[in-house]
Each structure stands twice: as structure tokens, then as C-alpha cells.
């Protein structure tokens, strides 16, 4: 009888520990970017540089202790037809990909690219992964694009392989949570007083 009482006490103690641990909440390690109709979540220990202008929302993210970098571009022009989408891809995305590959070539990195498929904000996206080695350090640039909320979104993730591997959970969080609320309005100018 004594051993069964000790067994129940042990089980009760273990249940108490499990309930105590599960009841504790951990502080959120996520922040939200929410400007100009562009919304996404990102790791709280990352910094943001907002270079938005009249043509596009451009937000760059990274960590002080990492060489990886993520950039989110959202072009302000709404794309309501397949023809406009095809034109935006040809004029904006194709040129951006070609420019990125050319930069690697000029650096002597001998880039190799392959297509990728993923999602941006729950929308199926196309992309390209560019593998290269700069000064003997292997790295990658991944460029993904999709139309989200009738706006072309281009998300870029680049850096040395080791830094990219460490930053991948942040990349996944950002890319998966992107929303473009319609319309992606231009920043409002402050009203000027009339003379």
C-alpha cells in the first residue's frame, strides 16, 4: 500500500510540473511591420531599414551578428490583369534577376541558378535560387515573387550559406506572413498651411 501511495505522489508531482510548465507563457519573439498597406511578422531581434519611395515599398531586414539579408519589395502599381502581371514580371523581376546574376559574375563567383517554388503570404510564388562562391565562401541568393493583394511582391534572401541557414526561420516567418492590404497607398504628404 505504501508503494502505491508513493507512486501516486510521484504522478501527482509530475502532473503538477507539466501543468506549471505549460501554463507559463514565453515572451513573444516576433514583431509586426505594418506601414503603407504592407504587413508582415519578423523576428524581434532583427532590425529594419525602410527605404520606401513613390514607386515601391522596400524594406530590408537583418541582424547585426549576421551577413544574411532579406529585402521585401512591393510595387505600388496594382496589377489587375494577366497582361499587366506579365509585363511587371518582364520589366521588374526578370531585370532584377539578371542584374543579380551579373553582379555575381562580375565578382568572379560563377553563379548557377535554378527555379524555386514556394509561397508568399499564402500565394504560390515563383522564384530563382542562385548559388555562388565569393572568395571561397559559398553563398546563395533566393529571389521569389508573387502577386499579393494585386501588387507584385518580390522577396530576396541572400548571404553566405552558414548565415542563411541560421536566418532561414526568420525568412520563412517573414515570407509566410506578408500581406498587402489594398490599396497599397503612397505615403500621405503633410498638408501645407495656406498663406
Can you describe this structure?
The chain contains three helices and ten strands. The chain has 195 residues and is of the alpha+beta class. The protein has a single domain (30-180), classed as Protein Transport Mog1p, Chain A (3-Layer(aba) Sandwich), CATH 3.40.1000. The strands form two sheets. A seven-stranded antiparallel beta sheet has the order 3-4-5-9-8-7-6, sandwiched between helices. A three-stranded antiparallel beta sheet has the order 1-2-10. A hairpin with a 2-residue loop joins strand 8 (137-148) and strand 9. The longest helix has 25 residues, at 82-106. The N and C termini lie far apart (94 Å). The model is unreliable at 1-27 and 184-195 (pLDDT under 50).
SSE topology sketch:
Elements: H1 2-23, E1 30-35, E2 38-43, E3 47-50, E4 56-62, E5 69-78, H2 82-106, E6 112-120, E7 123-134, E8 137-148, E9 151-160, H3 161-177, E10 179-180
Keyphrases for this structure?
3-stranded antiparallel β-sheet, 3 helices, 7-stranded antiparallel β-sheet, alpha+beta, globular, disordered C terminus, 195 residues, Protein Transport Mog1p, Chain A, disordered N terminus
Shape: globular
The CATH architecture can be named as 3-Layer(aba) Sandwich
Largest sheet: 7 strands, antiparallel
* Tally of individual helices: 3
Strand-pairing-aware structural class: alpha+beta
Estimated helix fraction? 25-40%
Number of strands: 10
Give the topology string: H per helix, E per strand: HEEEEEHEEEEHE
Amino-to-carboxy terminus distance: 94 Å
Broad CATH class: Alpha Beta
Number of domains: 1
CATH fold group: Protein Transport Mog1p, Chain A
Fourth-tier CATH superfamily name: Mog1/PsbP, alpha/beta/alpha sandwich
β-strand amount: 35-45%
Instruction: Kindly provide the radius of gyration, computed on alpha-carbon positions and rounded to a whole number of angstroms.
Output: 23 Å
Strand neighbour order, sheet with most strands:
3-4-5-9-8-7-6
| Mean pLDDT metric | 83
Runs in which pLDDT lies below 50 for 5 or more consecutive residues are 1-27, 184-195
